[in-house]
Design goal:
The chain folds into 2 domains: 75 residues, Glutaredoxin; 129 residues, Up-down Bundle (Glutathione S-transferase Yfyf (Class Pi), Chain A, domain 2). 53% of the residues lie in helices and 7% in strands. It has 9 helices and 4 strands. A 4-stranded mixed sheet has the order 2-1-3-4. Strand 3 and strand 4 form a beta hairpin. Helix 4 runs antiparallel to helix 5 and helix 4 packs parallel to helix 6.
C-alpha cells in the first residue's frame, strides 16, 4: 500500500501515527505542498481534490483521512477500531464530529488563517472577523470535548485508545502553534499529553514542530 502525504499535513499525521504505532507497512510518498506539487497534473490524476493524504492499495484508492484510517484499521484487524457495532459506531461518531465541528471551526476558522499565509483572508477586516468567529466557535467545541466527550474518560470513546484519538489529536495539537496551551480545558490538555507520550509521536511531529518554531514571536490569538 502506498500513502501520498506530507508530514506538515494535519490530516496525514493520524495515518502516520496509526501506521507507526500499529506496525502497518506503507510505501511513503511525500507530496510537497509548499511547492504546489499537489496541483500538478501528475498528482491531480491521483487525487483531483489536490489534497493529502491519498492511499493507493492496488487498484483501490481512498482520498479522505478518516476513511483511510478506518480502512487500515479494518484491514489490519486493529483492536483500535472495535468490531462491536455500538463501540464502532461511537468511534465513527467521534471522528465525524471532529470533521464537521471541531476541525472546521478550530483549524480552518482559527488556526490555519494564523499559521499559513495561504489561509489568510484578503482584507484585515475579513481576516479579523474570521478569527473572532472561529475562536468563539472553537471554544464551544473544545468545551464539548473537555466536558462531555472526555469528561472523566481517558480517551474519546472511554478508557481505551481508539483511532478516534489518533484522528482528533492532530486537529487539537496544531492549535499549539498559535501558542494555545489548553489550560482552560484540563481534560483536553491531559488527554493530549497522553497522546504525546506515545512512542512515535515525537519523530512524526518533528516537521510540524519545526515549522511552528519559525512562527515564534508572531502575535496570535489563542483559545
Amino acid at each position: 500500500m502506498k500513502l501520498y502525504y506530507h508530514p506538515a499535513s494535519t490530516t496525514s499525521r493520524p495515518i502516520l501515527m496509526f501506521a507507526a504505532e500499529s506496525g502497518v507497512a506503507l510505501d511513503m510518498q511525500v507530496v510537497d505542498l509548499f511547492t504546489g506539487e499537489h496541483y500538478q497534473p501528475t498528482y491531480e490524476a491521483i487525487n483531483p481534490n489536490h489534497l493529502v493524504p491519498t492511499l493507493q492499495d492496488g487498484d483501490f484508492r481512498l482520498t479522505e483521512s478518516s476513511a483511510i484510517l478506518k480502512y487500515l484499521a479494518e484491514k489490519s484487524g486493529s483492536p483500535l477500531y472495535p468490531t462491536d457495532p455500538q463501540k464502532r459506531a461511537r468511534v465513527n461518531e467521534r471522528m465525524d464530529w471532529v470533521n464537521t465541528q471541531l476541525g472546521r471551526d478550530f483549524c480552518y476558522g482559527f488556526v490555519y488563517p494564523q499559521i499559513f499565509s495561504f489561509h489568510k483572508r484578503r482584507s484585515d477586516e475579513a481576516h479579523d472577523a474570521t478569527l473572532q468567529w472561529g475562536k468563539e466557535r472553537a471554544q464551544g467545541w473544545l468545551k464539548v470535548l473537555n466536558d462531555h466527550i472526555l469528561g472523566a474518560n481517558a480517551y474519546l470513546c472511554g478508557d481505551t485508545i481508539t483511532i478516534a484519538d489518533y484522528f482528533c489529536a492532530e486537529f487539537v495539537h496544531v492549535g499549539e502553534l498559535t501558542g494555545s496551551d489548553f489550560a482552560a480545558y484540563p481534560n483536553v490538555k491531559a488527554w493530549l499529553g497522553r497522546m504525546k507520550a506515545l512512542k512515535n509521536w515525537k519523530p512524526i511531529h518533528e516537521t510540524i514542530e519545526g515549522y511552528g518554531a519559525t512562527l515564534k514571536g508572531q502575535p496570535m490569538l489563542t483559545v
